[in-house]
Design brief:
Elements (H helix, E strand, L loop, with lengths): L9 H26 L3 H15 L1 H16 L12 H24 L5 H35 L1
Helix pairs in contact: 1-2, 1-4, 2-4, 3-4, 3-5, 4-5
Length: about 150
């Protein structure tokens, strides 16, 4: 990203690199927990690592879902900047981690509100990802395969 450059502005590049730092940190902590034979902590950090490593995929799914639902609202398509791109960039790393923590907490609580909120969050993000996947398939992959 630093050497070759990419779309977006400096803040978006910094956020993407921060996501990379989260991947490195989560991998170090997952390995440390495994070496200490702390399987519970290892599992937690491995899940965080998996989600952080997929942040770019989540970004792609969210941005395609946004384009399908709202068009280019809040996005400067010439420079690929704007409040929407910045928000999705942050959410693509933060939201999956927050939802994973909510799922983990819902698994140990008997609070029905937390359990229902967790299920609703999972349904909402699943729908967003499904819409985004539809957009990615038809905008990027379908034409390359069929055309």
């Amino acid at each position: 990203m630093i050497a070759r450059g990419t779309v977006g502005n400096t803040l978006m590049h910094a956020l993407t690199m921060l996501g990379g730092c989260v991947v490195i940190l989560a991998s170090i902590l997952a390995v440390q927990a495994a070496r200490k034979r702390n399987i519970t902590k290892h599992k937690i950090w491995a899940i965080r690592l998996y989600l952080a490593a997929n942040g770019v995929l989540f970004f792609r799914l969210m941005i395609f879902a946004w384009f399908l639902i709202f068009g280019s609202l809040g996005i400067d398509t010439a420079t690929f900047t704007g409040p929407t791109v910045l928000t999705i960039s942050v959410c693509s790393y933060i939201m999956p981690l927050l939802i994973a923590e909510l799922v983990r907490y819902a698994g140990i609580t008997s609070n029905r509100v937390i359990i229902i909120a967790t299920a609703a969050s999972m349904m909402l993000i699943s729908i967003v990802f499904l819409v985004g996947l539809f957009g990615v398939v038809f905008a990027s992959w379908y034409l390359a395969i069929v055309g």
